[in-house]
Amino acid sequence: MSIKSFKHYFLVIVFTMVGSHLKAQEINWLNFEQLEDSLKVQPKPVFIDFYTSWCTYCRKMDKVVFTKSEIINILNTNYYAVRMDAESTDSIYFDDQLFVNKQAENKRNGFHQIAMTLGQRNNQFIPPTLIVLNKDFTVRDRYFIYLDSKKLLQSLEKNEQITKGT
Length: 166
Description:
Layout: H1 3-24, E1 29-30, H2 32-41, E2 46-51, H3 56-65, H4 69-78, E3 80-85, E4 92-94, E5 97-99, H5 113-119, E6 129-133, E7 139-143, H6 149-164
Parallel strand pairs: 1-3, 2-3
Antiparallel strand pairs: 2-6, 4-5, 6-7
Helix pairs in contact: 4-6
């Protein structure tokens, strides 16, 4: 093997490894069943993202905010991150309760009970809805708007400081 072909081969391997590492860095999203199991093993704060497929700002957060390394790092390290389609028709068993989407029986795209329980404001649910919970599952913050990466990072860091008592 010539030096030139060796360099080419080496660069291909390096770029492949770097590219796969960059693609692999994403938020470790959990569902509510996984969250309940995780909280039993090791309590820590929870970040919940309720979204819908038709929500423009939800899709923007996916592309612009949840891809930032700072956001990924803080969520993966210091929080359990839960993501749920608020219009899901799945039955969810959480905290010894069964949650369903009763609205879907009467409406084409009703909102799930768990989204309504945790994320409604003035008896309405409007995505995106972001919720930060303490280790004991009490609500620390709720956001009913698009948060850019800077605002979300500030909120998560503020909550970390409060949790740590600094």
